């Protein structure tokens, strides 16, 4: 689900990036990161240099650590985002409408500027079922109390810049609420009830209680028609959870000297139950047969689409619990907010893509809507399993060549295996070099480890070590592993690029482009080449509606299914940006993929390698300088 953005303060964004990324950064790289022109970067940088917040040289720009804290504080006071937030928060907390002239005076802005901000706010609140209405000079926020609370929560998550929302930020947002006392109460009651709360669970419960307490103190309470779930309950909830929720609400009422309505209490209990992570060691849990069957189908589907096998027992059980809770939340219209969504999408695209596939299948089979935040939680659950599976596939097959008089061979191979468990599979142990030619191995040999022998080997790469596994031995094996992996990856990447990205599928455009228009244009080209069938553009748009394929200034659009007649990719470099969606108007490079299912392994490798390269802003800046297909391919391979 696409979210309407609030206006960004690019100068503050530049300062934050330099704070979080020490070292020198070129204007070209920073333009990619911030999503503006190099000229704008230089203008913002000049202001920051003048205020001594950053330093500039021929190497680019870097943070001035001595001045950072004070400057950051000053910047935040003047941000457009902050102004918009204040407008919104006033809409929430004031019983009467807001006068445009009062707002202008309060924000130290002209009436025309305030009206522009209100226009942005008006578009922003629509996604929560809210409307801004005007009567003369007065503006009012109309909609249900529960939807207004969703809006408050969303603002706080956006303001957190995709980091954890913790106790301190909640305190700052609700000074009229005793957040510390409520936090202590949650901790104490959870321990008494043997309830496990991870960081996300705890902060989510604390935030919703703080919002409810703040709204109740100011005279706002939900009514029955606000919330469709009031007559329902959460299936599978234990007595522990219900008792915990009831006790916590009673404690909050006592701490805050308020009385929640019955509707408010029921709504909070549901949120608390939805927010509790189930762990077998702490909570008895049951997975319905339907959920178990569904999870097996999802695991099979991911394997079919991406060649990733998630059939790991512990993963399956924990994932089934999460899916069951997710479906319960979705059926009640409740979304678990995730402050890590954008970061996961950008840093782990292949894992996020797995989560998107799972979410799409859930939407199809279970008739629910899965939003980006929930997709990110799925990614968090499957992340370790996906990474472990991919790492296992990339492990090298090593053969040990060691004299047969070597003592304690079993201990030696076991120790070697432990040292390099993430990188190699130790195949067979042989005692004579001739066995390398005569013996049949279960898979192709990547290299040979010679122990206490220096026999020249022509057929395989090898290294020589002692039986003592010294630091020098460890370094020798580690260096060879790194060299082989990198060489193999480059060769495979180059072969895939040359095979699936022909010269004619490369465009550099100086125009400001539109995503859907570009999809139609490129799909038409691919249709004429008999790569895809008519209607491929609509398949690409459908995938974007599920969750954006853009992360920062890069996008890797593709359909949800591998329906291409044959596999091809298409590259578009647009220095002036592609208007991607309401949240991203500045994608500078598009790596479109049309995939036939016979090439799903190659697709996953291309997707993974390209994502790995473009996660670094400096690499994107280098790639954007490419003028020709050959230059682009060569640069891409060199950056791997």
Automatic annotation (TrEMBL):
Keywords of this entry: Activator, Repeat, Transcription, Transcription regulation
SUPFAM superfamilies noted in UniProt: Phoshotransferase/anion transport protein, PTS-regulatory domain, PRD
Pfam family, any one: PRD
One GO process term, biological-process aspect: regulation of DNA-templated transcription
Top-rank lineage group of the source organism: Bacteria
Chain ranges of the PTS EIIA type-2 domain: 499-640
Keyword Hydrolase carried by entry: no
Residue stretches making up the PRD domain: 173-282, 286-392
Name by which UniProt lists this protein: Transcriptional antiterminator
Taxonomic source organism: Companilactobacillus kimchiensis
Upper taxonomic lineage: Bacteria, Bacillati, Bacillota, Bacilli, Lactobacillales
């Amino acid at each position: 689900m696409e979210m309407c953005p609030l206006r960004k303060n690019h100068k503050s964004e530049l300062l934050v990036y330099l704070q979080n990324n020490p070292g020198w950064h070129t204007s070209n790289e920073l333009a990619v990161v911030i999503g503006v022109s190099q000229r704008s970067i230089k203008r913002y940088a000049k202001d920051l240099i003048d205020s001594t917040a950053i330093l500039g040289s021929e190497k680019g720009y870097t943070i001035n650590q001595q001045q950072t804290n004070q400057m950051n504080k000053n910047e935040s006071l003047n941000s457009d985002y902050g102004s918009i937030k204040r407008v919104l928060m006033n809409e929430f907390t004031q019983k009467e409408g807001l006068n445009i002239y009062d707002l202008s005076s309060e924000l130290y802005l002209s009436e025309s500027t305030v009206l522009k901000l209100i226009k942005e706010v008006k578009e922003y609140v629509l996604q929560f079922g809210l409307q801004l209405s005007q009567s003369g000079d007065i503006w009012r926020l109309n909609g249900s109390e529960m939807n207004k609370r969703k809006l408050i929560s969303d603002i706080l998550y956006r303001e957190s810049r995709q980091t954890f929302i913790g106790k301190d930020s909640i305190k700052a947002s609700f000074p009229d609420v005793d957040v510390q006392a409520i936090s202590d109460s949650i901790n104490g009651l959870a321990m008494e009830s043997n309830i496990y709360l991870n960081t996300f669970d705890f902060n989510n419960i604390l935030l919703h209680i703080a919002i409810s307490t703040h709204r109740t103190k100011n005279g706002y309470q939900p009514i029955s028609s606000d919330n469709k779930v009031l007559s329902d309950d959460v299936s599978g909830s234990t007595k522990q959870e219900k008792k915990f929720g009831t006790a916590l609400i009673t404690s909050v009422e006592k701490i805050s000297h308020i009385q929640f309505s019955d509707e408010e209490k029921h709504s909070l209990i549901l949120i608390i139950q939805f927010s509790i992570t189930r762990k077998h060691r702490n909570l008895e849990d049951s997975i319905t047969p339907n959920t178990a069957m569904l999870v097996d189908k999802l695991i099979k589907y991911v394997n079919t689409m991406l060649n990733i096998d998630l059939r790991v027992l512990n993963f399956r059980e924990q994932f089934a619990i999460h899916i069951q809770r997710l479906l319960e939340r979705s059926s009640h219209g409740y979304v678990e907010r995730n402050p890590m969504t954008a970061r996961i999408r950008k840093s782990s695209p292949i894992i996020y893509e797995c989560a998107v596939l799972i979410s799409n299948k859930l939407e199809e089979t279970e008739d629910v809507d899965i939003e980006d935040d929930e997709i990110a939680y799925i990614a968090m659950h499957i992340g370790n399993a996906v990474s472990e599976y991919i790492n296992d596939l990339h492990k090298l097959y090593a053969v040990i060549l060691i004299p047969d008089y070597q003592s304690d061979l079993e201990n030696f191979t076991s120790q070697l295996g432990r040292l390099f468990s993430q990188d190699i599979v130790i195949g067979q142990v042989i005692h004579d070099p001739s066995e390398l030619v005569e013996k049949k191995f279960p898979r192709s040999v990547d290299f040979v480890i010679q122990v206490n022998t220096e026999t020249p080997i022509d057929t395989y790469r090898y290294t020589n070590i002692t039986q003592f596994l010294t630091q020098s031995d460890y370094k020798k094996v580690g260096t060879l592993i790194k060299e082989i992996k990198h060489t193999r990856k480059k060769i495979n990447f180059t072969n895939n690029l040359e095979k699936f990205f022909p010269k004619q599928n490369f465009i550099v455009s100086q125009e400001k482009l539109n995503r859907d228009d570009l999809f139609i244009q490129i799909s038409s080209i691919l249709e004429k080449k008999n790569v895809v069938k008519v209607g491929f553009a609509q398949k690409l748009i459908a995938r974007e509606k599920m969750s954006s394929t853009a992360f920062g200034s890069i996008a890797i659009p593709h359909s949800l299914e591998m329906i291409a007649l044959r596999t091809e990719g298409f590259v578009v470099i647009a220095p002036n940006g592609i208007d991607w969606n309401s949240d991203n108007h500045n994608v500078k490079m598009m790596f479109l993929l049309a995939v036939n299912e016979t090439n799903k392994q190659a697709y996953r490798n291309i997707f993974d390698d390209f994502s790995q390269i473009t996660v670094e802003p400096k690499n994107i800046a280098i790639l954007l300088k490419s003028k020709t297909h050959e230059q682009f391919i060569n640069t891409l391979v060199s950056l791997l």
